[in-house]
């Protein structure tokens, strides 16, 4: 058994090889069957000495944007470095391939390596554009054919994920932290690890994925779940109440401090202590004792009703007709009574804002005087785009559950997480008494814009009243099915969120689940090859090519230019004719102020030829590369397409070859 097999079988997908953490799943058999059957057909046809050139590229930018971040190059190089069919691989192929295949072919496969392959690529983390090859491979036809599927799977998701993360970073702005929380929603363990790595590459600040933190040295962040809060039901469950003072070392009762502060805070925040959950306070105190320097609490577990504002409303008989009116999109006037939807009450505010908060209907269950919210997910594409603002407090209702025809309705939205705010602030001030500073809160449901503003206002009141300036700077983290559109909407509403925890929409790339990279033969034994199609988009650009990026005087990238590898590179200050590869009338002269050659040799003669950047350096490269694009190329709505052109020489070559290979029809 070889080293690769031992590492794969000894526990874990990734093998620890120092910096080169090799994914044990990435091996020659991670391919499509037809690659191996083609290899046999090539071998049987005597093509073992044929030399080929393949281009790896994509045809369209993802997410309706006009740029793509190239990622996954390091994994491709690791794959080339370890490419070898093991003895067990060969035995499996003997059993799987059709009978009659000569033993000599299996011996040939067993001796294959990537030693004779040369790989050219643009730098990982660079912005890339359709039709410009991001990787170019030269080498023996059989071996470069066998590399196809594995290279595509290593580049496709990595580049898609990095691009998605970069787009989130752009809409969030550089001052807001972004954390990847998507492991539980990712497409399997490998998808989760790749998502953590490449979201960090694209601009995220950390991950909840502990293994990704270990493997890739990514900052690991996290708080706690609602389960921790609900695991406590009373103060009597606290087994430990004492915490050592940070400076004096004296043990003090943290709960006692918290209860004292909660009483004072109730007047500052205008929240009765009867409105707060004792179990929630117990949970927060216990968590603060465990992590006094890292106390960050989830504050939306309980939706506690208020005696002064609770209304008891009888469900009317015309509920069914109003429900039909709402669900069928008919005209809806602001009702004075609840509207029943599947046994729940959908309440509409006086100004027409429904009780839908951030894409979730709050299902409020009253238990022992407490109201617990259970979010029921609905369409989140416009989840934060509620027209209700902080000025609408008096008219913003939330949904509630009816029991025996009675709806229990908290009148004001701001009651929705006052328990959490009150208890958190009390525990944070208690920690302050003992020399510690809390970190902040996390909000996981509701109207994120409104609730973040409410929380920030509360923190400012506490900071002023108790003379604790650091309270103004407490971090507000928001999660709850956040996507790119959600953040844009929250920006418009003036949110006070400092950090977003993003999972499902990020790691699954829900707006576009695949990039669509392809791998095409463009030259064989020095002869250019072209793939023709009635769909011009699928016509390949033949021959061995070089790629250059031409810049304007203001430092922005103007155009990417493809040339035949035999042509002289474009020169600074010299006029260059740039042509659309397939539309004759689209052409322009460009006088570049700077010319960047995009390709470097990364693999040759069995060795990596460049000093590979660290993940941090690739992450920095992404932001540097994005800055070279004009803002109109990067905007989320109707971005300007970035131009990709070919030289006049390559244009004529493509069309001559096209005519030579296109069949001539016959009319009769």
Task: Please summarize what this structure is.
With 668 residues, the protein is an alpha+beta fold. The protein contains 20 helices and 33 strands.
Q: What is the rounded Rg?
A: 31 Å
Q: Report strand %.
A: 15-25%
Whole-Å distance between the termini?
Answer: 66 Å
Uncertain runs: 1-19, 304-414
Mean pLDDT: 84
**Per the principal axes of the C-alpha atoms, what is the gross shape?**
elongated
Main sheet: strands, sense, barrel: 7 strands, antiparallel
Helical percent range?
Answer: 25-40%
Global structural class: alpha+beta
What is the tally of beta strands? 33
Helical stretch tally: 20
Strand line-up across the major sheet: 25-24-3-7-5-31-32
């Amino acid at each position: 058994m070889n080293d690769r097999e031992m590492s794969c079988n000894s526990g874990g997908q990734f093998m620890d090889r120092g910096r080169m953490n090799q994914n044990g799943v990435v091996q020659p058999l991670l391919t499509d069957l037809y690659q191996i059957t083609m290899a046999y057909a090539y071998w049987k046809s005597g093509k073992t000495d044929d030399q080929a050139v393949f281009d790896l590229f994509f045809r369209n930018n993802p997410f309706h944007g006009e740029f793509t971040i190239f990622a996954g190059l390091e994994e491709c190089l690791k794959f080339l470095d370890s490419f070898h069919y093991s003895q067990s691989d060969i035995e499996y192929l003997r059993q799987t391939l059709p009978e009659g295949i000569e033993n000599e072919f299996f011996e040939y496969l067993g001796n294959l390596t990537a030693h004779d392959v040369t790989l050219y690529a643009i730098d990982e983390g660079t912005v890339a554009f359709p039709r410009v090859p991001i990787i170019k491979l030269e080498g023996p036809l059989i071996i470069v054919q066998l590399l196809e599927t594995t290279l595509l799977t290593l580049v496709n998701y990595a580049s898609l994920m990095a691009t998605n993360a970069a787009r989130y970073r752009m809409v969030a702005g550089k001052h807001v932290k972004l954390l990847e929380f998507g492991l539980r929603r990712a497409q399997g363990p490998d998808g989760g690890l790749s998502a953590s790595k490449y979201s960090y590459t694209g601009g995220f600040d950390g991950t909840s994925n502990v293994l990704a933190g270990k493997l890739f040295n990514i900052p690991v962040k996290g708080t706690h779940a609602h389960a921790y809060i609900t695991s406590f039901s009373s103060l009597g469950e606290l087994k430990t109440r004492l915490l050592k003072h940070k400076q004096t070392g004296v043990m003090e009762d943290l709960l006692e401090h918290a209860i004292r502060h909660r009483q004072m805070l109730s007047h500052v925040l205008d929240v009765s202590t009867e409105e707060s959950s004792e179990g929630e306070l117990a949970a927060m105190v216990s968590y603060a004792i465990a992590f006094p320097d890292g106390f960050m609490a989830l504050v939306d577990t309980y939706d506690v009703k208020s005696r002064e504002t609770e209304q008891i409303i009888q469900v009317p008989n015309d509920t069914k007709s109003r429900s039909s009116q709402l669900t069928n999109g008919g005209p809806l006037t602001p009702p004075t009574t609840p509207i029943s939807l599947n046994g729940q009450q959908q309440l509409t505010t006086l100004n027409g804002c429904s009780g839908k908060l951030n894409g979730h209907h709050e299902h409020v269950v009253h238990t022992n005087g407490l109201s617990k919210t259970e979010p029921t997910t609905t369409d989140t594409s416009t989840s934060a785009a509620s027209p209700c603002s902080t000025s609408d407090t008096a008219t913003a209702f939330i949904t509630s559950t009816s029991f025996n025809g009675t709806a229990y309705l908290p009148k004001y939205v701001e009651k929705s997480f006052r328990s959490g705010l009150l208890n958190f602030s009390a525990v944070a001030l208690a920690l302050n008494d003992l020399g510690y500073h809390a970190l902040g809160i996390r909000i996981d449901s509701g109207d994120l814009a409104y609730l973040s503003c409410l929380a920030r206002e509360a923190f400012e009141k506490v900071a002023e009243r108790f003379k604790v300036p650091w309270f103004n700077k407490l971090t507000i983290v928001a999660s709850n099915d956040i996507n790119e559109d959600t953040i844009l909407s929250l920006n418009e509403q003036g949110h006070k969120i400092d950090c977003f925890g993003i999972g499902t929409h990020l790691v699954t790339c829900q707006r576009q689940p695949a990039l669509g990279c392809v791998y095409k033969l463009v030259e064989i034994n020095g002869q250019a090859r072209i793939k023709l199609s009635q769909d011009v988009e699928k016509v390949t650009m033949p021959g061995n090519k070089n790629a250059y990026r031409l810049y304007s005087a203001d430092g922005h990238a103007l155009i990417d230019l493809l040339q035949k590898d035999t042509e002289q590179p474009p020169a600074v200050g010299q006029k260059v004719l740039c042509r659309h590869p397939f539309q004759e009338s689209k052409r322009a002269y460009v006088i570049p102020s700077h010319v960047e050659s995009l390709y470097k040799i990364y693999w040759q003669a069995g060795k990596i030829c460049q000093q590979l950047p660290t993940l941090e350096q690739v992450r920095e490269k992404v932001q540097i590369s994005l800055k070279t694009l004009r803002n109109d190329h990067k905007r989320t709505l109707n971005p300007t397409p970035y131009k990709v052109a070919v030289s006049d020489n390559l244009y004529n070559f493509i069309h001559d070859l096209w005519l030579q290979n296109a069949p001539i029809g016959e009319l009769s």
